[in-house]
Fold:
Amino acid sequence: MTDRRSFLRLAIGGAASLVLAGCDRISGSSWGPKVLNKAQGLNRRVQALLAPSSAMAKEYTEADLSPVFRSNGTAMPTTPAYQALLANGFRDYRLQVGGLVDRPMSFSIDDLKQIEQVAQITRHDCVEGWSAIGKWHGTRLSHVLDKVGVQAKARYVVFHCYDEMDPGEPYYESVDIPEARHPQTLLAWGLNDKPLPIKNGAPLRLRVSRQLGYKQAKYIARIELVDSFAHISGGNGGYWEDYGYEWYAGI
Ligand SMILES: Nc1nc2c(c(=O)[nH]1)N[C@H]1C(S)=C(S)[C@@H](COP(=O)(O)O)O[C@H]1N2
Ligand SMILES: [Mo]
Structure:
């Protein structure tokens, strides 16, 4: 299966070289989204052929860990809500889970740890052209979804974040229900045997290890189950998706 990655590189290489600026705002320029969307339609078709929904991301060993897990995008949210939580060492943090669920609930980090504690060593690939291998500690999202009871009409899980990229424009992301229920999809509260650093998304971030860096929402405030994300922000299911990035960002 290592061939799959090189094949994908070939398939999307042309587009990737045009967007080396990656997570920079250049993708919001007028030519950016158009070029991206065209090539990424191809990416999606290739993915659909090659990647069954049960496929697993490669897991690594402790020996493979990157000495430093760099930060990208927001490294310190400046919103008052986040700053207030930070001032109290995140003790007042509660993950809110609502939308199309039977029992809207909130969870402290300890509540999540009580549900389960798993670890996963996987590689993070950012479209800007860097990768890092980290050991993530967290709670599988599927277990949290079971607690709240996902309604049959729910199709996506949306992650609303504390950081604003522009005033009033919070980072957000989404995955579909199969991705949310995948065994490697974690709500991560730890990195490399320590609490999650602020620069990497404290107190809670998403790990969807089969997808690219921008899907890995940091600083999660709230999770919302929806049947469509058309009404959220730009309507494309994520902050970068609203600037033309592909919604399914398979690696
Ligand atoms: N809330 C939030 N999540 C985010 C971002 C961000 O700016 N804000 N950047 C994304 C991008 S582009 C990448 S590559 C990763 C970076 O994660 P890291 O800071 O742990 O390296 O987070 C993703 N999730
Ligand atoms: Mo990224």
Q: What stands out?
A: The helical segments are 2-18, 31-50, 80-87, 109-115, 141-148, 177-181. DSSP finds six helices and ten strands in the chain. Strands lie at 95-99, 105-107, 118-126, 130-140, 156-166, 169-176, 185-191, 194-195, 205-208, 220-226. The chain has two domains: 2-50, 62-243.
